[in-house]
């Protein structure tokens, strides 16, 4: 009820906030300098920004001249407009006749006496004025909260990661809140799902997933059942305990989100365990920077070879986003982690030590130059591998500490959605007694699909949450 009132108040405020944003956009836009190579403007009477003219010409959105009016796709190649990125006259600040907002207008020299006119809003120029601003609305790493058990329990007790099914499927503002919380915590719960009839072609998990985007099909199918079966091809389809892991890391592009709808869960045991791999990686980085460096560089091989299928991919445990920096630490932010012990293949990095000749003459006579280079690389790799093993042990100790885990026996008629590139998940062993059953329905979504919907709804509702 409280959440519904909050969402209603957000809507009542929306129109007034939009008006304020429109008035603010009329504030200071001043031309300071212009040359053949660049244009300098002052934003809000305080910030000087110099833009490369090729960037400005390349960003023109004039319909049917620079972009197609319907598809919004560019009608030219960047290399074509480089010679045409020189102003034909001094740029000027004008007023948008429709909104009254300030705009920068530049008339470009196209050659042969032809010109091309482009306009740039203050909002656009502000958005591209610095590295951090360019990521706003596209990436949301600044909203991430890394958690241990205490922090996630607090968030759950305050209702921050729990949502009602009916509101989720009907209300885009609730959907937006869900997507934001997945970005923030990496995990949410959709509750009060209607009782699922098993003999049906309609599965509620499809409604939950397709609210975000299209379902990612894998060799498990579009949807998959998590229940104990005979001759299981995956340990998840047994009653045994599962170690902490992420799914399908042997794919070149693993799924971004995993959804699990608890349909029946009356067994003894079978609790789901979740842990934040980003928090564990940060712990290693702060405690042993050299070991953390190895975690970002040593590839771990993953494979699936079963049932006439052979998948393979190698990736480091920690992948950083080199375009994003955590200004509090000076380090790149973490983009994703990769940890799935059950599907690890033999290591291929730093695992051999090359022959060491007794002296320089032996080195020259016994090995080609290329062999010497490879030997030097192997020696360096072997030292890095030692650092990696130290970092891996620290990472594993951290995620397996109960204080860094959140355990829950997922209630029937609840669906958990979690980030498969961040959140580790496992399951306790369970006992199947007569008349009892544990049945979860699952599916995956690509990270691109999720990010697309988050960006669209951020444009629509983002100002309500700022």
Descriptive terms for the model:
466 residues, alpha+beta, NE0471 N-terminal domain-like, Double-stranded beta-helix, six-stranded mixed beta sheet, four-stranded antiparallel beta sheet, 22 strands
Explain what this protein looks like in three dimensions:
- The chain has 466 residues and is an alpha+beta fold.
- The chain has two domains: 28-129, NE0471 N-terminal domain-like (2-Layer Sandwich), CATH 3.30.2020; 147-348 and 384-466, Clavaminate synthase-like (Double-stranded beta-helix).
- The protein has helices at residues 2-24, 53-58, 78-81, 122-127, 131-135, 149-157, 165-170, 172-185, 204-210, 277-287, 289-295, 360-366, 369-399, 447-465; strands at 29-34, 38-43, 47-52, 92-95, 102-111, 114-121, 162-164, 187-191, 224-226, 242-245, 257-265, 268-269, 272-276, 299-306, 309-316, 318-326, 331-337, 405-408, 414-419, 423-427, 430-431, 438-445.
- It has a six-stranded mixed beta sheet with strand order 7-8-19-11-22-9. Strands 10-20-13-18 form a four-stranded antiparallel beta sheet. Strands 1-2-3 form a three-stranded antiparallel beta sheet.
- Helix 1 crosses helix 14, helix 10 (277-287) packs across helix 11 (289-295) and helix 10 (277-287) packs across helix 13.
- Residues 12-26 have low confidence and may be disordered.
């Amino acid at each position: 009820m409280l959440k519904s009132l909050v969402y209603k108040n957000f809507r009542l405020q929306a129109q007034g906030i939009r008006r304020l944003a429109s008035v603010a956009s009329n504030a200071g836009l001043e031309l300071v300098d212009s040359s053949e190579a660049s244009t300098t403007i002052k934003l809000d009477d305080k910030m000087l920004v110099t833009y490369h003219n090729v960037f400005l010409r390349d960003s023109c959105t004039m319909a049917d001249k620079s972009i197609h009016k319907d598809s919004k796709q560019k009608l030219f190649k960047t290399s074509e407009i480089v010679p045409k990125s020189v102003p034909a006259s001094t740029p000027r600040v004008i007023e948008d006749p429709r909104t009254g907002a300030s705009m920068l207008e530049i008339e470009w020299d196209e050659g042969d006496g032809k010109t091309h006119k482009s306009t740039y809003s203050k909002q656009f120029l502000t958005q591209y004025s610095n590295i951090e601003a360019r990521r706003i609305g596209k990436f949301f790493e600044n909203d991430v909260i890394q958690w241990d058990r205490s922090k996630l329990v607090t968030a759950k007790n305050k209702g921050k990661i729990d949502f009602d099914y009916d509101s989720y499927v009907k209300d885009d503002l609730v959907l937006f809140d869900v997507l934001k919380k997945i970005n923030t915590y990496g995990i949410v719960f959709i509750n009060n799902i209607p009782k699922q009839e098993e003999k049906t072609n309609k599965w509620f998990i499809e409604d939950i997933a397709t609210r975000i985007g299209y379902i990612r099909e894998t060799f498990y199918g579009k949807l998959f059942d998590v229940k104990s079966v005979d001759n299981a091809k995956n340990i998840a389809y047994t009653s045994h305990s599962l170690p902490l892991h992420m799914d399908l890391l042997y794919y070149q592009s693993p799924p971004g989100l995993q959804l699990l709808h608890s349909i029946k869960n009356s067994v003894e045991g079978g609790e789901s365990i979740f842990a934040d791999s980003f928090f564990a990686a940060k712990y290693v980085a702060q405690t042993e920077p050299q070991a953390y460096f190895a975690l970002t560089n040593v590839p771990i091989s993953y494979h699936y070879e079963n049932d006439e299928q052979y998948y393979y991919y190698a990736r480091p445990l920690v992948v950083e986003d080199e375009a994003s920096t955590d200004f509090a630490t000076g380090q790149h932010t973490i983009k994703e982690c990769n940890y799935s012990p059950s599907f690890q293949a033999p290591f291929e990095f730093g695992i051999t030590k090359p022959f060491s000749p007794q002296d320089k003459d032996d080195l020259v006579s016994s090995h080609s130059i290329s062999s010497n280079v490879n030997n030097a690389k192997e020696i360096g790799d072997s030292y890095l591998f030692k650092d990696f093993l130290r970092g891996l042990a620290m990472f594993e100790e951290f995620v397996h500490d109960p204080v860094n885990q959140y355990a829950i026996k997922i209630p029937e008629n609840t669906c958990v959605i979690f980030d498969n590139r961040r959140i580790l998940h496992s399951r306790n062993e369970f006992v199947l007694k007569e008349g009892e059953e544990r049945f979860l329905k699952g599916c995956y979504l690509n990270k691109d699909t999720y990010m697309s919907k988050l960006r669209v709804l951020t444009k629509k509702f983002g100002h309500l949450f700022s």
